[in-house]
């Protein structure tokens, strides 16, 4: 009788510092902590407070995207590891960027306060200026750790910061700090992450002003900047319109509906795409026809599953909101019913992007993003005029559908 043996290296390999297990664990725990924080604080504070915080975070996201240097990705992608002097120049650039963004946010806070109808939220907007500054002064050794695939180290730092952020935010919300609880929690978590990058990560760059020596990163990083601008339009355009035209209460309902739908649908697909991309690529290198068959199988099963989930979530939307967020959020139920459709389309797009990039047609995904931007610019203004916040949500549906249709066409040509 033969004894069945399990590979002795499996557990050790699965928990090695470069194992994909750590990436998966980081994604699951961080998304779970963010979900707990926002859903619990959303239930405590209500739509208007969440809307005010969303405007502050929206300002940070826009400023960071428009000034994205792409240096972090360039360090990770570069052929040779950066020297300490090069890391010093990277740190100088990123710290200066964080300082400039922070100062700009403080300066434009009064304008944003009036334009987005926030009332007495001026200090909230100015407090958000600390976030880019804290991120800017973090040690660029963090990118070296990522470059060297030390995923365990990255996961422990990120999870620790997310845990502190979540706990701090919840404690402050329960103590009556209102909308400030979200931002203060993020600032404390970001401070911990920045400190850990200096304390636990090597090589540490010299802390002195140095601007030269990183010109070879610029050619790569400029494309990162261009991608950041396109993604900024896709991810923040609708929120700017809602916040500007309809005020913080409607923005809070819009943001929470979108976030809840994303947690239930899109996040799983995005995580799955991290597996699908290398899988499709490996199959395509070995046998393009086998990769095509695998893609058809995945896209069919995922599409069928998404249809079922969308139907269930739309039917259960009202009791789900009442249970998780409370009665104050029930007016957001119609928005949630639209967003589950949007996130289902987004989940399909994640699979399509994985396949198209795996077969070498990355251009199709960029073209789809441009198509989506053009459709949004054309349909969102009239939709907002006639149907308000619901029209914006349906406009996003049209944009996502257009992008998905183009990628499906390009994928079909590659089959």
TrEMBL record:
Residue intervals passing through the bilayer: 49-66, 87-109, 260-277, 298-316, 336-356, 368-386
GO CC, one annotated term: plasma membrane
Cellular compartment(s): Cell membrane
Keywords: Cell membrane, Membrane, Transmembrane, Transmembrane helix
Main location: membrane
One protein family per Pfam: Polysacc_synt_3
Membrane topology: Multi-pass membrane protein
InterPro entries associated with the record: Poly_Biosynth_Transport (IPR050833)
Family per record: Belongs to the polysaccharide synthase family.
Name this protein carries in UniProt: Polysaccharide biosynthesis protein
Organism, scientific name: Paraburkholderia phymatum (strain DSM 17167 / CIP 108236 / LMG 21445 / STM815)
């Amino acid at each position: 009788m033969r004894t069945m043996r399990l590979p002795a290296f499996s557990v050790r390999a699965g928990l090695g510092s470069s194992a994909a297990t750590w990436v998966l664990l980081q994604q699951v725990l961080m998304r779970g902590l963010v979900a707990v924080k926002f859903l619990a604080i959303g239930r405590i504070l209500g739509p208007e407070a969440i809307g005010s915080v969303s405007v502050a975070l929206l300002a940070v996201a826009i400023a960071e995207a428009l000034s994205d240097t792409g240096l972090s990705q360039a360090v990770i992608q570069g052929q040779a590891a950066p020297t300490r002097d090069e890391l010093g120049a990277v740190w100088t650039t990123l710290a200066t960027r964080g300082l400039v963004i922070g100062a700009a946010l403080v300066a434009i806070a009064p304008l944003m306060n009036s334009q987005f109808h926030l009332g007495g939220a001026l200090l909230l907007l100015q407090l958000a200026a600390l976030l880019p500054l804290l991120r800017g002064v973090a040690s660029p050794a963090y990118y070296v750790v990522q470059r060297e695939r030390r995923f365990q180290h990255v996961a422990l730092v990120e999870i620790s910061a997310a845990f502190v952020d979540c706990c701090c935010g919840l404690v402050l919300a329960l103590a009556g700090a209102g909308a400030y609880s979200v931002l203060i929690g993020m600032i404390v978590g970001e401070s911990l992450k920045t400190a850990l990058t200096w304390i636990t990560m090597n090589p540490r760059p010299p802390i002195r002003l140095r601007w030269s020596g990183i010109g070879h990163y610029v050619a790569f990083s400029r494309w990162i900047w261009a991608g950041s601008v396109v993604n900024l339009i896709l991810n923040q355009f609708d929120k700017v319109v809602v916040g500007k035209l309809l005020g913080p209460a409607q923005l809070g309902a819009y943001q929470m509906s979108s976030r809840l739908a994303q947690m239930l649908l899109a996040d799983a697909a995005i995580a799955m795409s991290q597996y699908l991309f290398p899988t499709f690529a490996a199959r395509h290198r070995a046998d393009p026809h086998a990769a095509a068959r695998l893609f058809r199988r995945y896209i069919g099963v995922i599409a069928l599953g998404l249809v079922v989930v969308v139907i269930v979530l739309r039917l259960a939307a009202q009791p789900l909101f009442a249970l998780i967020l409370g009665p104050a959020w029930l007016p957001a139920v119609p928005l949630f019913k639209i967003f589950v459709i949007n996130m289902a389309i987004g989940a399909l797009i994640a699979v399509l992007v994985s396949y198209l990039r795996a077969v070498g047609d990355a251009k199709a995904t960029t073209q789809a993003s441009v198509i989506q931007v053009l459709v949004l610019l054309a349909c969102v203004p009239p939709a907002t005029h006639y149907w308000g916040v619901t029209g914006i949500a349906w406009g996003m549906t049209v944009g996502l559908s257009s992008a998905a249709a183009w990628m499906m066409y390009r994928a079909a040509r590659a089959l």
